[in-house]
């Protein structure tokens, strides 16, 4: 279709209007406000940023975000990969996949309630109604406050919820890629006497690498955005706070728009590599 | 032997994934006295208890705790917040896919960059403006916010889908004198129904399951709060009344689960298309 005149702007106008006023403009304002005080009245330079890297609360949030980024994408993608490969070998594959995928339809809040109940704790003299502590006491151990014991137990307990939700997502995408690998290739390796582990490691995995990278970046972005799980399960108490929850608190509990804006900018900066990767991949494909 | 190992692994994984949700469902229909005294799993193996199962918890959360109203609010929020962005992104994607114009690549690249923009970067300025013009706490306000957050990915995916449509078909229609609008309405849109359906489902689930955006732009007042906001309120108010919390959680999950189970194929297609972005 040849283009003349300006009618394409009619098609673009609503989108550009919304993107400009709801995403681009606020982003610039937030950047600007991050250099101002709590009430956006006075310019204070980099003080908001300095506070993020010196205050105990925000340092804990930074640590936790780092912990999440190191642990969660790796575990979620590995589990998804394991499922994609193993499920390929059983008869009721579709059914099994649905079960793993199901949590994706559930909200983080719903999932939060589900897992808060899994982690439920009562003092040892009472019967345990949370299944994890019931298993522990049945095995002769004392029940644990899964969401209270800091820093490892409770943070890992929160991460488990994320993994429970997103492993299915990784599985679906990796499974599609795995099925895209030519069966003959795997069979040829088999007849050459390679065992299943070697086939997976030396044949399948290299071919899956691009997909793994895409899924891993997506998981990293979602990990950085995590808010609801923590809001519902611990509300950031007991050393479990992450940046997104901290920002919410700065915004609504302390009404400190400067500090909240600075935290938002930090989250953005952490995501910047992913944004750059996305744009560059787009450019490589379409740039010309 | 190897087959057995695979089947066993799959069985364990599936069990592990289903048990938490099963616990929720069972607890939501148990009476309070049982919930505090024994684990939910005891009910499964004790047929004598099955007679005591009840829907009272649901009646209480829906009628007395206001979850029914919240469910309705969620519908009022979610349906327009899914349809509006789809309409806007389809128009834009059509221009991006089939109308060469100056600056097209740059604009598209901006959209790609905005796909992973954290919402946090927009909350404070938007809320400040919303408070001034009276849009905070209104359905219109949150429809527009969800529209904005959904647009970049939708524009990009639809544009890719539109571009993959047969070139000759559109060109010959154009040669025959069909207007751009006619081609859009009568060729592009009908051919794209599967893609549109996938995106609609994804956006529906995304908006329905949202908490943060609703907390910020709608707040907790019962006339507007969606189920998730209400549910978080219940968690705060009834921390240990598991029979109520589980029933409430199931109410919030029911519709997404139905949508997911009945339209799983579209959902999966949408996810796969999304993963091929960029």
Automatic annotation (TrEMBL), chain A:
Tell me which GO cellular component terms the UniProt record holds: plasma membrane
Q: Which PROSITE patterns match?
A: ABC_TM1
Annotated ranges, domain ABC transmembrane type-1:
62-278
Kindly indicate whether the keyword Transmembrane helix belongs to this entry: yes
The protein's topology relative to the membrane is: Multi-pass membrane protein
Note the InterPro entries from the entry.
ABC_transporter_permease, MetI-like, MetI-like_sf
- TM segment ranges: 9-33, 66-87, 99-118, 156-178, 254-279
* Short name of one Pfam family: BPD_transp_1
Annotated GO biological process: transmembrane transport
Main subcellular location:
membrane
UniProtKB keywords: Cell membrane, Membrane, Transmembrane, Transmembrane helix, Transport
Record's subcellular location: Cell membrane
Q: Which PANTHER family match?
A: ABC TRANSPORTER PERMEASE PROTEIN, OSMOPROTECTIVE COMPOUNDS UPTAKE PERMEASE PROTEIN GGTC
Family, similarity comment:
Belongs to the binding-protein-dependent transport system permease family.
Q: What is this protein called?
A: ABC transporter
Source species of the chain: Fraserbacteria sp. (strain RBG_16_55_9)
From TrEMBL, chain B:
Offer one Pfam family short name for this entry.
BPD_transp_1
Key word Iron present = no
Q: Which SUPFAM superfamilies does UniProt cross-reference here?
A: MetI-like
UniProt GO cellular component terms: plasma membrane
Gene3D superfamilies, A to Z = MetI-like
Task: List each copy of the ABC transmembrane type-1 domain by range.
Answer: 71-263
Q: Does the keyword Heme apply?
A: no
| Alphabetized InterPro entries for the sequence | MetI-like, MetI-like_sf
Membrane topology recorded in Swiss-Prot or TrEMBL: Multi-pass membrane protein
Q: Where in the cell is it found?
A: Cell membrane
CDD domains to which the protein is assigned, alphabetical: TM_PBP2 (cd06261)
**What does the UniProt keyword field contain?**
Cell membrane, Membrane, Transmembrane, Transmembrane helix, Transport
Q: Classify the source by domain of life.
A: Bacteria
BP GO annotations: transmembrane transport
Q: Per the UniProt record, which residue ranges are transmembrane?
A: 75-99, 106-128, 140-162, 183-208, 242-263
Q: Its family?
A: Belongs to the binding-protein-dependent transport system permease family.
* Full protein name: Sugar ABC transporter permease
Q: What is the lineage of its organism?
A: Bacteria, Candidatus Fraseribacteriota
